[in-house]
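Problem: given the chain below (229 residues), write out its structure.
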Amino acid sequence: MKIKWVPCVFFAVSLIVALFCISIVLPVFSVSYYIKEFDKYQLSEKIRVTEPDLRAVVKNLQRYMAGIDKDLDVIVKVAGYERKFFNEREISHMEDVRGLFLRGFAVLGVSLAVIIAAAVYIVKNKIYYEAAKNVIVCAAVFFGAFGLLAVVIAVNFDIAFVVFHELFFDNDLWLLNPKTDLLINMLQQEFFINISKTIAAYFLGSMAAALIVCARACSVLKRRVKPAP
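Solution.
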């Protein structure tokens, strides 16, 4: 492999990784997305917490996962009585979730840095065709793999949900009790199914766009390349 292909491969892989991270960030850190989902199954009435209080909970949760807020300490009225929304078990679990997201943000940051560095090399050496071709190959591979994973998850979401938590968490704090833990009542299975679909749609859509743009670029650039004498 010629050295010029190396930055192209790094560019392509980092682009796909960045798109995946962004596809997660967009719905996970959107307050309006949560409220829209909550309205679907009338969460406010079910857990007897007002919508303004739910918004405050979501904002605190999102800021905590992003490393902005130090604590999950929002106080709400549940059935008319003031209390902290999150109990100790929920907070302990969310500490693990926060660590997972912070590592994800680090991966996103590294990916963006690699994209910029590789792009500078690509522009400097004018190897646009090679870069576009590598994006097509990488996107096609990831598209297929992610599509297969999406099918597996769709077939049995419950098993996929358990496997995910057993892979990424080394304790059972994620096993919450609907009778005592508001977090599991707020983020019900329907919520996780819908947000998984949204993430998949964002990711597959962005990769499809990358495939189309790069395929078009390859077509145009190939016609401009003159055969070697």
